[in-house]
Every structure is written in C-alpha cells, then in structure tokens.
Amino acid sequence: MNILFYTPVNFRCRDIESLAKKYLEEGNTVFLLSTSEIGSLHYAFSEMGAGVATLSSAGKSFLVGTLQSVKGLIKFCRENKIDLLFSHLEPTNFIAVLAQYFIKARVVIYRHHVDLAKLLHFEKSFTYKLTYRLAKDIISVSEEGKQYMIDHEGVVPGKIESINLGYDFSRYNDISKSNVDLIRQEYKHDLLLVTAGSLIHFKRQELSVELVHRARNKGINASLLILGIGSDLGRLIDLVKKYNVEDRVFFVGYKENILDYFSASDFLIHPSLSESSCVVVKEAALVELPVIACKGVGDFDNYLINKVNGITVDKEYFVVESLHHIEKYLVDPHVYKTCGANLKTEIMRRFSIESVFSRYSKYGNK
User: Fold this and answer.
1) In 115-147, which positions are buried (b, 16+ CB within 10 angstroms) versus exposed (e)?
2) Which contacts qualify for 153-157: CB closer than 8 Å, 24 or more apart?
3) What are the pLDDT digits (tens) for 105-139?
4) I need a labelling partner for 221 at 20 to 30 A (CA). Which of 41, 232, 322, 364 fits?
C-alpha cells in the first residue's frame, strides 16, 4: 500500500513516526505531508525512507486557503497513488474529509483530545461539526475520547475505533549525561520539579507555580522548570513575579531533548484538566521520573495506580495534595522512585507499537 500521514505540525511525534516505521517494515510505501515548513518530523520520516513534502495555505483567506488545501491534497494523493490516508488534528482533518470524495484512498482521521474543543469554545464551529459528520473512519487515542464523542457530540459509534497510541521507544534519542549534569547544575535546588505542555489555560501550569510558592513558605528549597510555549506565557510570568519566585521558576520553552530535562528532575508535575492520552507522562516514564497527575482526566485512570506507579490527586486539591507528596519524597524518595520504575514497565507494555499494530489491520494490508 501507499500510505500518507497528513498533519499540520513539523515537530517530532514519536507515535506517528512509530506507526509509519512499522508500515515501512511491512513493505509499504510511506509519505509525510504537512501544512508547515520542513522541520524535525520531516527529517525523521526521511531518515526512515519515507517521502516528505509540505503544502501550506498560510496567508490566504479561509475560503481560498481551504480550497487550495483540498485541491493540493487531492493532487498529492492522485500523483502518489495513495491507498490509505491518516490525518492528525483538526486543521488537516477538515481538509481530509472534504478531499475524501475525490480520491481513492481510505481516509482515517485521528481524535487526540476528549473535551478540549468545548473548553476552548470551538466545538460548535461549522468546520469542527462538519469534520465529524463527514468522517467515515475515526481513531480515538483513548476510550474516553471515543465515549465523549458519542455522548456529547452525537458522533455515530460505528465509525469510531479506540486505539492506544503506539510507540517504537527506540525513536527517542539517548539521554545525554552531560546535558543532564548541566541542567542540574544550572537549576540547582534540593528538589527539581518539571512541568511540560502547551502554555494554555486548561493545562493549569499556574498550579505548578503556586506549588513552588507554597513549598518555599514551608521551607522546601524547590525549583520548577516550565517546558513549553503558548498564549499563557505572559500571565504565568506575572504570577511568578507576584509570588516572588523568579529565582525558583524557569521558563525553558519548547525542547526536543525533553528526556534530558526529565532525567535531571525529581518529579513531573502535571495539573492538566484536559487530556486524551498524554504523551508527556509516557515520556517521563521512560526515564522513571515520578509523576503527579489528576484523577479522572483522559486515560490516566486506566493505567496510573496511586502509590504503585504514580501519584494521582484530586483535581480540585492539586496543590495541597501534591505538596503533601513532595514533603514525603524528601523523607523517603525510594517509594516515589519505585513508582517511576513501575510506570515505565506499564507504559512500555501498554503503549508499544508491537502491542497495538494489529488493530490497524482493518484499514487494509499490502
């Protein structure tokens, strides 16, 4: 088969790469088409032997941009005789479902969120609603995402398949011990916390900042690395100044070598209210970093067992309960480090590409 991965992003996505690699190993021909400029994702696909291309409509009006994108996708699929198209995220999903009527490829769109559309107030937009009405095949990366579509968005259950994200964990670069040592030296405190993700309201990074503030008031010498970019950056900077923790909270930005930062840290703090199947927690598990996350968010309850392979806290009392565990960590870190090791075992079992690839057989084989 000729298989196309269609996405708006250009940064590394190990789940997409892993599925592409598996298809390549099965003897298929694989392409990556993105709507952004050439980036690290393209280089990763190219190194695996896949074809790569970009198709952008930036600067165009909505109507002109949409028509141009649909026309470009149709042309690409016809020229490369695409049999199976996997589309990721809402901008390209809309284009893919419009183009599906003019190409022979089977079009499958991915749902990477549960309720984020509602939280960000675009669940009633024309393009969003039309995408899921026209879609013929949808993959939700969690059972929770699938159920939300059925219960709250009226999507026909029969066209949704829930498939865990699958990873070839060798796609992650080796950890650089020298980088880890430099990070620890630069942000030296008794306890180094890290939070990672888009800096948007529903990720609630302000609670991580508050946690550092309260820890300091209790005499705990903790610092926090904030990895990520987003619209909330200014608000978070103001909050850091308000709490007078500029010497303890550091905005690191987006980093490709996220595992180096996780390896240098003592805890991943993840107060997010909206996830489907969180990548950050999986990446933390790879380096056995203890995780604090919220109960009842995304698929966490399916695999995070409190005090066994992670710490799950009430979303309404995130700071108070997290501070309690930080205090306990300083007394007995072994318990929490064991949780990190146990989580790695569970993540590698549950989310390996080998364990999920058979679920893709329904979409066609070479």
Assistant:
1) bbbeeeeeeeeebbeebbebbebbbbbbbbbbe
2) 153/123
3) 999 999 999 988 888 888 889 999 999 999 999 99
4) 232
Helix (H, G, I), strand (E, B) or coil at 300: helix
Section 209-216 average pLDDT: 97
CB 90 within 8 A of CB 128: yes
* pLDDT for position 365: 58
Q: Give which of 140, 275, 141 is closest to 196, Cα–Cα.
A: 275
* Token pair 């066994």: residue: 308
CA nearest neighbour of 196 among 260, 104, 135, 115? 260
| Neighbour count for residue 256 (Cβ, 10 Å) | 10
H helices of the chain, in order, are: 14-25, 40-48, 62-79, 90-99, 116-119, 126-134, 143-152, 177-186, 205-217, 233-243, 258-264, 279-286, 300-303, 318-331, 333-350, 353-356
Short-list 164, 357, 19, 365, CA closest to 32: 19
Chain center to CA of 264: 21
Residue 330, CB-side half-sphere exposure with 13 Å CA sphere: 16
User: pLDDT of 336-349, one tens digit each?
Assistant: 999 999 999 999 99
Across 41-60, b (16+ Cβ under 10 Å) vs e yields bbebbeebebebeebebeee
